[in-house]
Amino acid sequence: MERKELYTYLTLLLLTVFTAYFANNYHGIKIFSILILILSGIKFLLVAFNFMELKKAHPFWKVLLVSYLTIFISIVSILL
Amino acid sequence: MKSINYKSIYYPPGGILLWILIFLELITFGVALIILVAGTDGNINAYYESASHLNATYGAINTIFLLTSGFFMATSVKLFKKGNIKKADLYLKLTMMFGALFLLLKSLEYSEKIEKGFVLGYDTFFNFYWLLTGFHVIHILVGLVILLLLHFSMKKPNALVEDFEASAAFWHMCDLIWLLLFPILYLVF
User: Residue ranges of the domains in chain A?
Assistant: First the structure.
C-alpha cells in the first residue's frame, strides 16, 4: 500500500464526512453552502495534485487548475 | 522503464492532450453548473423543492465509491511504475469494481427518479440533473472501457507508462467532475 496515497484517501473521506455533516445540519444557510463548496474544492485539488500527480507537473498546469477552481467557486458562491 | 520529464510544460503526468481534454471537460461542466445556479435568480424555492427529491445519501456513497476507485487507480499507477505488474493489475481490478458499484447505485437512483416521475423535462433543475449526471455516467462508462483495455494490455512487454498514466488521468477526471457535480446538485439547494 502506498502511504502517501493512503493518507490522501483518508483525508478525502474525512472531508466527505464533514461535507455531509454541514449539508445535513446547516442546510440552506449560504455561508455553509460556500463552506461545502470550499471543502469540495479541497477534495478536487487533493485528487488532482496527489492522485493525478499534478504536483510533479510544470507550474503552468498547477496555476491553471487552481485558477479554474477559484473562479468556479467564486462565481457559484456569488450566485447562490 | 524510461523516466518522463514531468517538469516540462509539454509533459504533464498523463500527457498534454489528455490535460487539454480535462480542462475542456471541466470548463463544459463548470459552465453548465454556473448556468444552473444562475437560473435560481428569484426562483430559489423551486430549486430547493426539486433538490429535496434527490437522495444525498446515494450521492455521498457514490462519492466514496469514486474516491476509493481513484485511490486504487493511483496506487495501481505507482505499482506499475515500480514494475510490480501483478499487484498493479489487482488494484486496477479494484478500481473497475468501485467504478461499477458507482454505476450500480446510479442506476438504482435513476430508476427511483423515473418511478416517481422526476424525468427529463419535469422542471429546470431536473433537466440539469439528468443532463449533467447522464454525461458524467457516459464518462464513467468510457473510463471503464479504457481501464478494461488497459487490463488486457498492461502485461505485454511493450506496455508503456505513458498509456497507463493517460488512462489513469481520464479515470481521475471522472472523480474531478463528480466533485463539482455532487455538492451543487445534492447539497447546496
Answer: 3-79
Question: Which residue intervals of B39-123 are DSSP H helices?
Answer: 44-51, 56-81, 85-116
Query: Which residues 75-104 of B have a C-beta within 8 angstroms of A?
Result: 75, 77-79
Q: Please state the domain extents for chain B.
A: 16-187
Architecture of the B16-187 domain: Up-down Bundle (1.20)
Contact B71, A7 (CB under 8 A): no
Nearest CA in chain A to B187: A23
B103-156 pLDDT, tens digit each? 999 999 999 999 999 999 888 899 999 999 999 999 999 999 999 999 999 888
- Nearest Cα to B176, choosing from B23, B45, B72, B16? B23
Q: What is the DSSP letter of A60?
A: H
